[in-house]
Design goal:
Blueprint (H helix, E strand, L loop, with lengths): L5 E3 L9 E6 L5 H9 L9 E3 L5 E3 L5 E3 L6 E2 L2 E2 L5 E6 L11 H17 L5 E4 H4 L15 H11 L11
Parallel strand pairs: 2-8, 2-9, 3-8
Antiparallel strand pairs: 1-5, 3-4, 6-7
Length: 166
């Protein structure tokens, strides 16, 4: 189920240094996947994690998905260039809890990505990289960063979430 909305990474696969978590703004995983498959949408993510734990790979992680928009991380702009985007099906992570099944999938996926890309040093949310600051709020206040951080540290103790994402 690939999305046509991607392009080669300018720095190649060795430039992957970050994972960015998003919420879809919808409770409809199939709708999100369909939207990402539409070339007119001009948006995508590497993965969609549905409420029932299903992980759908939309863009090869060696390529650049179009998930972060105007963005910056640690002084480096165009976060899409060096990150992997994960969309979690959720209408709004500020009031709608994420499911246990989603957390289990996210823990597995995070560990898998850290094993594949030892260059990853940051795991954070769209809310922390989108410009101007405050433009995005995902994955939201109900997202359990401690749980993800614990999964990440178990796989690679050199990964540090961005300040504000924890």
């Amino acid at each position: 189920m690939f999305s046509p909305n991607f392009e080669p990474r300018p720095g190649g696969p060795s430039d992957v240094t970050s994972i960015i978590f998003h919420h879809t703004g919808s409770d409809n995983g199939d709708g999100t996947i369909s939207w990402f498959q539409n070339p007119n949408s001009r948006v995508s993510a590497h993965y969609v994690v549905d409420r029932d734990a299903q992980i759908t790979n939309m863009v090869d992680t060696n390529d650049r998905a179009w998930h972060a928009g105007i963005s910056e991380l640690n002084g480096r702009s165009n976060v899409n260039d060096f990150s992997i985007g994960i969309e979690i099906v959720n209408p709004d992570g500020n009031w709608s809890p994420y499911t246990e099944a989603q957390y289990q999938s996210l823990e597995w996926l995070t560990q898998d990505l850290l094993n594949k890309y030892p260059s990853i040093t940051h795991i954070t949310g769209h809310e922390d990289v989108a410009l101007p600051k405050g433009r995005k709020s995902d994955p939201g206040d109900l997202f359990d960063w401690n749980r993800i951080r614990e999964a990440a540290y178990g796989a690679n103790p050199n990964v540090f979430p961005v300040v504000g994402a924890v």
